Structure formats: structure tokens, C-alpha cells
């Protein structure tokens, strides 16, 4: 790829588990490894705030509250539906949205629109399942995805099935954004310097630009908990909506490219055509993201018997998905209308806009789009890094039996930033593997929620809901396997530039 901004598109690319009968026996909170150690609560004839049950009306449901209050995801439970909108938008719109028009070059108008619509409904449904599963009828709150997976599939199986996908969707997404921001910075510099490098004296190297981004990201990451970054998520959601809207409006206003063709791009064989279609479907599936942080977002909300947390969470998700649809569908449809099959896998509609209208679009507009994308990366980094921060702090609090001091928290977050920087420098071709690794993570959003609903809620056998979830979950696993196969096929056919510790230069 010519720049880190340009990525190869997915290498083309009942009853809940029972709690203890005693009101004073706490189950330990299941998290990403290492686990949170259970806290001993002395017996008392008076029920206190550590009770694990649905409490009386007006009282908040809690599990292991002392240690929960020490961790960044659950330290603050004063969230609301507006916060849910902000966080869902920030986590739900990413760079994958700009590649949606490219999937239409393979699927065409009809199948592209059908697949995009069905995937939107599918992802919204599994979002709803996760929201409902956040609290069981016993009052136990699952504020982390792996925690819910362990309850549904068992301790060992749940960890085995969910650990790698969730880790990739959290830390891996942060690393990918770090790699891609270099290409966006390159484009921004080229725009403000007149599309040449002659005006730039001693430009920063790729690694130096990575370091600038990491320093800014870790500085913002000093906010103590997930609720405290609501305004950052608001900024991330706004910048995502604005830059997507600007791109598709400009593309329509400029009448797209000349001699546009809407003939689908064919491969050299029927096998190639099949894998290209699978990878295009994978592109659409990857665009709808954020399932790995749904439970975490809901964990920031208060919950009572009268108003459980699922009510404001679902209200916020519906509003957020309405806005997401107003971004994704215009980008996909307008982008394909404007550029047809001239959209490439590298960069999608953004690179097409620059290629065909870079000269007749003002530098201020193009520079603004690039800056909005960079700000969006910075904001999205925060919410995707939060599960990693929570995991690191859970290890500390489990060992020390006390909350993290501010300097420990800062050090742990700086440590993650350094690790992300190291991986970005060591494996700069990571976006080229997005189809392969992303396919492994697809069950988190397509299949696992359906399986977990049947295993935890135990709907009556042979009912519509029972059959529907098993079939939909099975179909999700099939899609995931096919996308992984498509990723492998793309790597075999197109190859991967294995440049270990050799990131592409920002200015060439």
C-alpha cells in the first residue's frame, strides 16, 4: 500500500445462572484475564450495598461493588441514554465506512443494498440481545463481554472463545488506527503544502508521527473512567458524521468521475468471483462495529427494578443506529453512484475523492476532512482502549486489594500506548491482515449473542425465538468462516508486504 491510510480492503479484504442463595455471598466478577479476586463481606443481619440481587425499588443493582468501583468501566454509574448515543456513535463509525462503496463494485446495486440492509438489521438485533443479557433476573450485571461469555459457555470455553476476538477488537483496533493515522497525516501534509513535499523542511518520519499520535492519545486517556470521556465520544461521533457527510456530498456535487461504469468487477474464475463476493460481504460486516464495548457502555448506567439499565441503553442505541444509517447508506450509495467501479480497495471513497476531485476542491475543505478523520481516530482510540485499561487495572487491584493511585493509572495507560506504538512499528502491514483476523472476531457480533441468549435465558424449546437464534448464530459462524477463508485467499493471491520494523515513510 502506498500509504498507511490506504488499506487493502480485507485482503481483497429461562433462567440465568443462579447466584448464591445467601444474600451475603458474593460471586467474583468475571473479567478478562486476570480475574478480579472476590472480596469477603462479613455477615450481618442487615442487608447492605453489597447484596447481589434485584434490590427494592429505587436501589441500584450491584455485584462486588467495592472492586467494581475501582475499575474505569464501572467506577461511575451515572450514565444516561445521551451518553449511550455518544459512546455508540464513537465506537460504531470508523474507517471501514469509507470502504463501503468498494463492496458495491463487486456486489452491484441490488445485492450491495440488500447485504448492507440485512447486515444493519442483524447487527442491531445482536446489539439488542447483548443489552438484554447485561442483567439477568437475579440482578447480576455483566459489564464486560468476556464476563458474559464465561457465564454462557462456561469458564474455560467462554474465555477460549471470546478472549482473542475481544482483545483484537480492543487493542488491535487501537493499533490499526495508529498505523492508518500516518497515511492520513501524509495526505494532510500534502494538501496544506500544495501537493508536494518541497515546502516541508525536515519532515517527521513515520515513527515520529506515530509517536505524536500516541502521546496525544495517552494524554487524553488520563480521564479516570468511561463516563468521564462522554464528551470525547461526543466529539468522536460528531467528527465521524461530519467527515462522512462531507465526503459523499462533495462527491455528488462534483458529479463523480467521468465515464462511470457500474458493471461489477469480475475475477478470473468462478472461485475468484466467489471469494471476492465473500470479502465484499466481510467489508460490510466490519463496518458495523462496537459490539465488544456494548456491555461496557451499559455498565456505566444506574439500574433499578423500576428502571433497569437496558431501558436507557436501548433508547440510546436506537438513536445512534439511526444516525449511523444516515452515514453508511449515503456513503455507500452516493460513493458508488459517483465513482462506480473506479473506487479502489485502497482508501475507498476518500482516495477516490482525492484522485478525481483533489484539484478542483479547495485545500481548506480537503484539509478539514483529513483533520476530522484524525480527531475521530483520537476519540475512537479512547473507547476501544478502555477495556484494555480496565484489564490492566483489574490485575493491579486484584493483587494490591486497593484502587489504583493516579500515577499508577497514568503509568499503566502509558504502558499500553508504548505497546501499541511498538506493534505499529513492528507490524506495519497489520491492516492488510484485517480480513483474516477480522473474520476470527466476527462471531462476537454475529453469532455469540444469539447463542448466549439461548444458553442464558433458555427460551422454550422449539419456539420461534429458540430456532431463530440457533439458526442466526449458526449462519453467523458460517459467515465468519467464509470471511476467514476469503482473507486467506486474498493473502495468497495479492500477497502481503512483510515489512517488519519498516513502516512506510510518511512523505515519499
From TrEMBL:
Could you tell me which residue ranges the Amino acid transporter transmembrane domain spans?
81-492
The portions of this protein that span the membrane are 98-122, 166-192, 204-223, 229-250, 320-339, 364-385, 406-427, 433-455, 467-492
InterPro entries assigned: AA_transpt_TM
Q: Which GO terms describe its cellular component?
A: membrane
Give the UniProt subcellular location, in the record's own words.
Answer: Membrane
Tell me the domain of life: Eukaryota
Q: Name one Pfam family in it.
A: Aa_trans
User: Which keywords belong to this entry?
Assistant: Amino-acid transport, Membrane, Transmembrane, Transmembrane helix, Transport
Question: Alphabetically, which GO biological process terms does the record hold?
Answer: amino acid transport
- Protein name, please? Amino acid transporter transmembrane domain-containing protein
Look up and give the organism this protein is from: Stephania japonica
Q: Which lineage?
A: Eukaryota, Viridiplantae, Streptophyta, Embryophyta, Tracheophyta
Amino acid at each position: 500500500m502506498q500509504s498507511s491510510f490506504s488499506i487493502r480492503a480485507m485482503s481483497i479484504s429461562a433462567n440465568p445462572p443462579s447466584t448464591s442463595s445467601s444474600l451475603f455471598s458474593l460471586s467474583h466478577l468475571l473479567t478478562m484475564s486476570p480475574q478480579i479476586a472476590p472480596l469477603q463481606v462479613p455477615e450481618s443481619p442487615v442487608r447492605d450495598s453489597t447484596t447481589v440481587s434485584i434490590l427494592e425499588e429505587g436501589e441500584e443493582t450491584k455485584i462486588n461493588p467495592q472492586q467494581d468501583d475501582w475499575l474505569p468501566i464501572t467506577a461511575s454509574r451515572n450514565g444516561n441514554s445521551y451518553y449511550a448515543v455518544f459512546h455508540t456513535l464513537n465506537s460504531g463509525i470508523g474507517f471501514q465506512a469509507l470502504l463501503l462503496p468498494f463492496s458495491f463494485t463487486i456486489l452491484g446495486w441490488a445485492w450491495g443494498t440488500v447485504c448492507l440492509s440485512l447486515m444493519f438489521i442483524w447487527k442491531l438485533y445482536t446489539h439488542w440481545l447483548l443489552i438484554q443479557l447485561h442483567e439477568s433476573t437475579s440482578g447480576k450485571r455483566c459489564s464486560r463481554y468476556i464476563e458474559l461469555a464465561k457465564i454462557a459457555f462456561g469458564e474455560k470455553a467462554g474465555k477460549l472463545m471470546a478472549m482473542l476476538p475481544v482483545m483484537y477488537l480492543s487493542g488491535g483496533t487501537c493499533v490499526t488506527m495508529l498505523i492508518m493515522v500516518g497515511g492520513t497525516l501524509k495526505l494532510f501534509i500534502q494538501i496544506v503544502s500544495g501537493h508536494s513535499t518541497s515546502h516541508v523542511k525536515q519532515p517527521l518520519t513515520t515513527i515520529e508521527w506515530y509517536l505524536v499520535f500516541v502521546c496525544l492519545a495517552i494524554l487524553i486517556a488520563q480521564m479516570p473512567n468511561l463516563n468521564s470521556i462522554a464528551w470525547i465520544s461526543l466529539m468522536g461521533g460528531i467528527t465521524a458524521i461530519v467527515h462522512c457527510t462531507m465526503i459523499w456530498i462533495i462527491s455528488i456535487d462534483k458529479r463523480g468521475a467521468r465515464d462511470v461504469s457500474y458493471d461489477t468487477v469480475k475475477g478470473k474464475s468462478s472461485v475468484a468471483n466467489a471469494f471476492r463476493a465473500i470479502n465484499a460481504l466481510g467489508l460490510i460486516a466490519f463496518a458495523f462495529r462496537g459490539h465488544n464495548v456494548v456491555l461496557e457502555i451499559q455498565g456505566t448506567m444506574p439500574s433499578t427494578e423500576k428502571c433497569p439499565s437496558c431501558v436507557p441503553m436501548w433508547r440510546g442505541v436506537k438513536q445512534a443506529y439511526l444516525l449511523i444509517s444516515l452515514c453508511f447508506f449515503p456513503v455507500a450509495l452516493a460513493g458508488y453512484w459517483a465513482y462506480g467501479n473506479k473506487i479502489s480497495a485502497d482508501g475507498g471513497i476518500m482516495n477516490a475523492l482525492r484522485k478525481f476531485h483533489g484539484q478542483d476542491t479547495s485545500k481548506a475543505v480537503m484539509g478539514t476532512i483529513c483533520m476530522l478523520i484524525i480527531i475521530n481516530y483520537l476519540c475512537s482510540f479512547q473507547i476501544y482502549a478502555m477495556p484494555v485499561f480496565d484489564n490492566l487495572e483489574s490485575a493491579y487491584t486484584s493483587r494490591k486489594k486497593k484502587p489504583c493511585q493516579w500515577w499508577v493509572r497514568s503509568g499503566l495507560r502509558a504502558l499500553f500506548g508504548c505497546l501499541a506504538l511498538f506493534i505499529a512499528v513492528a507490524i506495519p502491514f497489520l491492516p492488510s491482515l484485517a480480513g483474516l483476523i477480522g473474520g476470527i472476531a466476527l462471531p462476537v457480533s454475529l453469532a455469540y449473542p444469539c447463542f448466549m441468549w439461548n444458553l442464558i435465558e433458555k427460551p422454550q424449546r422449539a419456539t420461534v425465538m429458540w430456532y431463530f437464534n440457533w439458526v442466526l448464530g449458526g449462519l453467523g459462524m458460517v459467515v465468519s468462516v467464509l470471511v476467514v477463508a476469503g482473507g486467506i485467499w486474498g493473502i495468497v493471491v495479492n500477497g502481503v508486504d512483510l515489512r517488519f520494523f519498516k513502516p512506510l515513510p510518511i512523505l515519499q
